[in-house]
Amino acid sequence: MKIVFVVNNKNNRFKKVLPKLEQYARQANIGSVQFHHTQRKQHAIDLTHQAVTEGCDVIIAVGGDGTLHEVINGLLQSSLPASAYPAVGLLPQGSANDFARTAGLSSSIEALFQLIRSNSTRPIDLGKIYLHDTQESRYFINIASLGLGPEVVQGLERSSSWFGPGFQYFQQIIKTFFRYTKKTIRCSSNNWTWEGKLLQMAVANGRFFGNAICIAPEAQLSDGQLQLALFGDLSIWDYLRNIGKLKKGIKIAHPQVHYHTAKEVRVESSDACGIEADGEYVGLVPATFSILPNAIRFVMPSNTD
Questions:
Q1: Is the pLDDT of residue 253 over 80?
Q2: Three-class SS of residue 126?
Q3: Does 157 lie in the same domain as 286?
Q4: Would you say residue 95 has pLDDT above 90?
């Protein structure tokens, strides 16, 4: 068995975790193990592409949702047929770890190696974003969002904070609210359409985003469906009144909040409306979002979801 770890090396953030991980990998005696460290943004895409082209059985992202996002895109941008993809895994070490919440993953190195050793994998879906203007495709494993979310992501990339990720996310959401201008969008699927001013729209494969906000409580990783949560012309006070419910995974009963399912949805806007996926900014609408059922095998407990 050949296992490749793709490690987010931003600011050498894992200097305490990596020695333990490397030592455990040497002692585990479960095959060949390689470590590749990122040196720049989107480097994990290139590292993954190289690793899967050279051949491996398992590829593990060490980092957060953004690192996993890049690993997924490196895999699907390779020339391998889907039947030849290695299993994908995650050692969650990021600031939010939202996908890990849905997948039932812990930050335990021992637990990860136990899953690998026992070949505990499940087929899961992926989301695909087709950007019409640039004719590019991007893939996501957790949640993509439009409107407020992409501007929060861009703000986080520019900011720094002494406080933890929870406070940083909340602070950036509030800051963005006060400067955000709602976008007028139109989205359509095969059996429904929606048009109006948009605060935020989540296109979900997983349940959580924004550091443990359960925006799509009914999302499942293997059901062949996207869950959509549309927050229309809401005020900041509406949002703040409902943040506790969102954290608990309670759907919001409000005339400007709508929930849908779809296998494919197209979004258009006359405004410059951004898109983020798994916490990474990817571009602008118009775009088509679709589901890729059972696209990859993921290293995870068999009793989740």
A1: yes
A2: strand
A3: yes
A4: no
Beta bridge partners of 32: 2
Residues 14 and 136 in one domain: no
Q: End-to-end CA distance of the chain, in Å?
A: 27
Indicate the DSSP class of residue 82. G
Q: Domain containing 112 — which CATH number?
A: 3.40.50.10330
Global pTM value: 0.94
The total domain count for the chain is 2
Distance in angstroms (rounded) separating the CA atoms of residues 258 and 252: 9
* Residue (of 125, 144, 122) closest to 224 by Cα position: 125
Round to whole Å and give the CA distance between 171 and 180. Answer: 14
Interval 130-177: pLDDT, tens: 999 999 999 999 999 999 889 888 877 766 655 555 566 667 777 777
Burial 52-74 (b: 16+ CB within 10 A, else e): beeebebbbbbbbbbbbbbbbbb
Residues 6+ apart with CB under 8 A from 148: 173, 176, 177, 180, 199, 200, 231
Q: What is the pLDDT of residue 161?
A: 55
pLDDT 10s digits, 27-60: 888 889 999 999 999 999 999 999 999 999 999 9
Q: What is the DSSP letter of 181?
A: -
Domain that holds residue 246: 128-294
Neighbours of 192 (CB within 10 A): 13
Q: How many CA atoms lie within 13 A of 101 on its CB side?
A: 25
What phi and psi values does residue 301 have, to the nearest 5 degrees? -60, 150
Element counts in the chain: helices (H) and strands (E): 8, 18
Confirm if 80 and 50 have CB atoms less than 8 A apart. Answer: no
CB 226 within 8 A of CB 187: no
pLDDT at site 262: 97
- Let me know whether 142 and 83 are in one domain: no
Rounded to 10°, the helix 109-117/17-28 angle is: 30
Q: How far is CA 99 from CA 29, 74, 227, in A?
A: 28, 18, 15
